[in-house]
Task: inverse folding
């Protein structure tokens, strides 16, 4: 061992020169002067690099990697020369320079995509291990999970260390969840980098250095995956490879896609009924109400407040009769109080994280002094899940994991707390970033057991790489400001680039108070966020859609309804996300090499699903210059067509969020409903946008509730294809055994400059002309307020209706 390791004064120790190497399955094990390094092709296009100091053995422990993931073999060739060894597998070459040892990743044509700094590569500084990477010309850095700042994070540095950051600012770091995975983009290639180590890490994307970017972990082994993207479709490819490693989101229950209303806190039970009834009276769709900490007795998890909630089952039943489900909050801290069942059994069975002297650690949270379950022990996860019976007995199907960084007043939990780590044994330093994820896992596994064949909904604040397997993520205690609203959009887009497709923010801002216009704009954006929830803090203004006056209520109703009308489109996007594609898609997913999309504020824009372009804009702006990516676009409200690849000036008004649809798109909609469990009218509204582009689409149906793991074939999938140039729309017959809910299709033909004839399976069908409104006009309640704009519509939209048997393929020509 190098003598300076472990002493107080440490200098950088590099791997050193190559001493020897041995071929291993799909890779190499190299012995260098100061450490070893192991390079393995893990999957096609995916290379794993691990390095440790002399005497350190290979560490296979990981919560991030999906234990159910299967590896796909890669045939690897090796060519060795004194100055370099090259491993080639599929479209990736790994060139290992030997004097000193450093690594380069090249594509099949020999272009360098990612390269170690030739002098430093992998190095140790005390316990810390880093990899230094040469900054490529024009290299951009995307993703890294819940990280503030612009879409391109070049020139910034971030720390991955889960932190409860109440009222964080638009540039604060770190926040609640850490995902040490990013995507690099430059002219020579696109790649992903995933650091498989849960210790606190630093990702420096060229802040304070023009020579290298560097990624350092406080302790543990260097263990990273290089995910090759290729130039075409590179970002999507990387994301799919990353999902293959860390797992995909299970399909959530459909009700979790509906509108969710939260408050810190709604109580007593009558208040929840009043809120639910108000939604129904006002014809504002809603699927979920939340119980924040006041439902508990003295803030003790697994209890009901005896006066506020004397009969939770009856409350849940009454709400369910209105089509509304309850989601309850769970905090990890267990109050130290003899006679409290969770404390007693937790103590008796040894479920709390201990200090090295064997005494359970105590920290203060909502219930006062508390112990913290060790979710890194499987027996504790099971215990936690079993405690949740008190909720499932009351008919609760949705769970909200909060304060799981974990948070304790003071925010500085001591590093020496010990954790089981599946029997491996470690300290809080390694457990911190995975604590929230393992809590979410305990909740998900507990809920799945208790709910049997029903899909639970699970939400978490803290998380780590792979959290998507267990829960949706929301971005914590944001603040009511325009800046924060846009920052939230970027956070959700960034989470989408980091494997977490189901994410959202507190609409209206948790801390502080929104102006009516800000709330209206935020609600519009929320309707185009994967997770759609309004929330606000104790002692602040209410955040229900009717709390900001009649006009805002009309605007909110319009957009919440639109969300429900888009449910067939959205549900298919969610189903698609189970293979790794996000629902809110940063434009970098499709146009990574277009410099304009990175320009601020154009970097707020995203696709919702694959076809709808959302342009987030502040609520007070009258005009905005926006950038439409390449292609052709239609204004979603009035069908005005735009050429993309350029900036356009838009007139704004608070009644509509700028939305565009790409030419060739087919958007599936339905009649409005007040909750996802309510039947629509049986007509699938297919909005076809003409143009020379061809687009495919999907319709996915199931009962929205059953656990897909146990009911795999009980779905109906129809794939469709629109050939814009030939004006042909084809829909295949359905796959799967679910009967489906649509009997008719109403086809709307957008963007035509002529009156079409329509052939359905070769037969002429009657075309009519309807008025089309994406949103209803907002009523003028205040006689002194001038109208803000003309309510947009398409006056004569050609459409036709025909009956549809989902079993059979159909063809439409227009
Ligand atoms: C935390 C959560 C917030 C919740 C509050 C009370 O601050 O982030 O959403 O309302 O705790 O439980």
Result:
């Amino acid at each position: 061992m190098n003598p300076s390791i472990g002493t107080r004064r440490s200098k950088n120790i590099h791997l050193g020169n190559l001493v020897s190497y041995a071929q291993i399955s799909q890779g190499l094990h190299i012995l260098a002067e100061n450490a070893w390094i192991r390079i393995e092709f893990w999957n096609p296009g995916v290379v794993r690099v691990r390095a440790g100091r002399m005497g350190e053995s290979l560490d296979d422990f990981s919560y991030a990697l999906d234990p159910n993931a299967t590896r796909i073999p890669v045939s690897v060739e090796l060519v060795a020369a004194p100055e370099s060894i090259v491993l080639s597998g599929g479209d990736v070459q790994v060139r290992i320079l030997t004097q000193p040892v450093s690594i380069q990743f090249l594509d099949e044509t020999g272009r360098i995509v990612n390269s170690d700094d030739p002098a430093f590569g992998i190095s140790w500084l005390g316990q810390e291990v880093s990899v230094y990477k040469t900054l490529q010309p024009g290299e951009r850095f995307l993703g890294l999970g819940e990280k503030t700042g612009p879409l391109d994070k070049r020139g910034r540095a971030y720390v991955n260390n889960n932190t409860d950051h109440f009222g964080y600012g638009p540039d604060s770091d770190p926040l609640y969840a850490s995902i040490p995975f990013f995507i690099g983009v430059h002219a020579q290639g696109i790649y992903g980098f995933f650091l498989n180590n849960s210790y606190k890490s630093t990702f420096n994307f060229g802040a304070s250095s023009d020579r290298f970017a560097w990624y350092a972990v406080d302790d543990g082994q260097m263990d990273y995956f290089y995910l090759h993207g290729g130039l075409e479709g590179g970002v999507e490819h990387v994301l799919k490879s990353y999902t293959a490693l860390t797992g995909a989101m299970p399909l959530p229950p459909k009700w979790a896609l509906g509108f969710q209303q939260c408050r810190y806190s709604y109580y007593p039970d009558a208040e929840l009924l009043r809120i639910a009834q108000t939604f129904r009276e006002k014809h504002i769709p809603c699927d979920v109400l939340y119980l924040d900490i006041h439902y508990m007795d003295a803030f003790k998890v697994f209890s009901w407040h005896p006066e506020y909630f004397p009969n939770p089952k009856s409350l849940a039943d009454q709400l369910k009769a209105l089509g509304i489900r309850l989601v309850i909050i769970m905090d990890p801290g267990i109050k130290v109080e003899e006679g409290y069942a969770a404390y007693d059994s937790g103590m008796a069975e040894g479920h709390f994280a201990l200090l090295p002297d064997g005494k359970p650690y105590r920290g203060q949270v909502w219930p006062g002094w508390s112990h913290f379950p060790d979710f890194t022990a499987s027996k504790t996860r099971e215990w936690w899940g079993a405690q949740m019976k008190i909720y499932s007995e009351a008919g609760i199907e949705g769970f909200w994991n909060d304060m799981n960084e974990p948070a304790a007043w003071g925010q500085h939990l001591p590093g020496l707390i010990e954790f089981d780590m599946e029997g491996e044994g470690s300290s809080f330093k390694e457990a911190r970033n995975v604590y929230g994820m393992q809590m979410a896992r305990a909740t998900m596994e507990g809920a799945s057991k208790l709910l049997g064949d029903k899909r639970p909904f699970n939400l978490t604040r803290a998380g780590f790489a792979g959290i998507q397997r267990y829960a949706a993520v929301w971005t914590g205690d944001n603040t009511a400001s325009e800046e924060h609203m846009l920052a939230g959009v970027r956070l959700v887009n960034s989470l989408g680039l980091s494997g977490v497709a189901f994410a959202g923010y507190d609409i209206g801002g948790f801390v502080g108070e929104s102006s009516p216009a800000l709330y209206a704009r935020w609600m519009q954006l929320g309707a185009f966020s994967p997770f759609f929830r309004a929330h606000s803090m104790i002692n602040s203004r209410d955040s229900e859609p009717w709390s900001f006056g009649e006009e805002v209520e009309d605007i909110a109703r319009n957009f919440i309804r639109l969300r429900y009308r888009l449910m067939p489109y959205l549900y298919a996007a969610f189903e698609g996300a189970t293979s790794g594609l996000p629902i809110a898609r940063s434009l970098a997913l499709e146009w990574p090499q277009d410099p304009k999309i990175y320009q601020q504020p154009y970097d707020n824009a995203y696709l919702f699903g694959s076809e709808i372009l959302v342009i987030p804009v502040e609520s007070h702006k009258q005009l905005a210059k926006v950038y439409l990516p390449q292609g052709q676009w239609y204004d979603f409200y009035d069908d005005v067509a735009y050429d993309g690849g350029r900036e356009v000036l838009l007139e704004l008004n608070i009644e509509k969020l700028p939305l565009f649809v790409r030419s060739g798109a087919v958007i599936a909609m339905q009649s409005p409903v007040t909750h996802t469990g309510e039947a629509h009218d049986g007509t699938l509204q297919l909005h076809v946008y003409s143009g020379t582009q061809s687009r495919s689409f999907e319709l996915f149906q199931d009962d929205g509730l059953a656990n897909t793991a146990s009911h795999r074939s009980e779905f109906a999938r129809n794939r469709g294809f629109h050939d814009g140039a030939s004006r042909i729309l084809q829909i295949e017959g359905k796959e799967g055994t679910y009967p489906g809910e649509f009997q008719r299709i109403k086809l709307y033909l957008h963007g035509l400059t002529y009156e079409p004839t329509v052939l359905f399976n070769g037969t002429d069908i009657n075309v009519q002309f309807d008025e089309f409104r994406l949103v209803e006009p907002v009523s003028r309640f205040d006689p002194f307020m001038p109208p803000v704009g003309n309510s947009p519509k398409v006056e004569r939209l050609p459409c036709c209706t025909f009956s549809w048997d989902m079993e059979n393929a159909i063809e439409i020509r227009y």
Q: What stands out?
A: The longest strand covers residues 794-803. The mean pLDDT is 96. The radius of gyration is 27 Å. The longest helix spans residues 428-451.
